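Today's session is about reading a structure prediction critically. Students often jump straight to the picture, but the first step is always the sequence itself: look for stretches that repeat, for charged clusters, for runs of hydrophobic residues. Only then move on to the predicted structure, which in these notes is written as discrete structure tokens rather than atom positions. Here is the chain we will use throughout the hour.
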Amino acid sequence: MAGKFCVTQTYAKNDTDKATVGFVIANAALGSEKDTMLFLMAEGVRLSQQGYADDIHEEGFAPLKDLMANFASAGGKIYVCSPCFKRRKLDETKLVAGATIVGGAKLVEFLSDGSPSVSF
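Below is the predicted structure for this chain, in token form.
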């Protein structure tokens, strides 16, 4: 892969348009052969839970659950902010495919080589 790309996702059902577009961009980065990481933080960590995104479908886009599944199956990395996850008392046994709970240092490590990053 040629380079890296990072999407930071802070939205879930509190703004389903931004939640969807974040995964659209992440999939586009993977399709452009970028080593792509999607970092879920703040409310975005709710997307890490199985079934949570099942009813999110913004007009003009694929359903969010499909975008998420495609991203994971194509080798995208979904990292979930540990403090944000714990604060919301979410269930570690219900993580979506490809999701891993990590500390903020993982984001810093990924970005430290100058990776482009967008936030939603």
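Discussion point for the tutorial: The chain has a mean pLDDT of 95.
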